Amino acid sequence: MYESDSYFDGDGGSGYSQYEHQELEYLATFREDVRRIAEFVPSGRVLEVGCAYGYFLQCALDAGYDAYGIDLSPDAVKWAAEHHPGRVFRGPLEEVPEIQEQQYDVIFGSHVIEHLTNPGAFLENASRLLRPGGLIVLVTPNIKSLLARVSGSRWVSFKIPEHVSYYDPGTITQLLRRTGFTVRAIDPAYQYYAVPFVASRLRELLHPVSRLIPPVERLPFIRTRRIRVTSGSMRVIATL
Asked: What H or E segment, with its residue span, contains residue 80?
């Protein structure tokens, strides 16, 4: 699934739709993550797990970090490596040879851990690559978020079988503690989206009532607007 070239264009029925076309939205989102990371680690070497097209890498590099990324998708790695030569590699965390002898100040993974059947092993591998006191930052759906509770089975983050585990602040804290990490903060995670994209998701959630709502998102002065919204996810920050 994740190694398919269609994972980031939505053609395979899973993954992301319009990922490449939402570059500006993802850059705005990841700038918030980088600003939060800078409150704990203002400089240093950063590794992103699941870097996709390298949008977080771009934000981290712009902020002065020495940033690198890995991903499983051949297409995404090719695209990101062309834009960030020598900084992007293909493969899982424990197998990419270029990163095994390195020490990182920060490991970042946005919407990765919910895909893993063995998250404990992933965190143990991450701890071996982090310097003592290093930071791990995970963004993942919060199954106890208000949006998750209100949406029920229509919650945008219910993606089966893509997502194999769901966490809340308590369970993610327990998992990190078992693998040697100390949780420093858990924040709501927001994302930037174009208004038509948000409207389409709201209509899916509110169907069939949504048919009564006028399509105001088609108006020219609204169509190009980007807004900051929550998808019911959380940003978890922990130290080794």
From this structure: helix 74-83
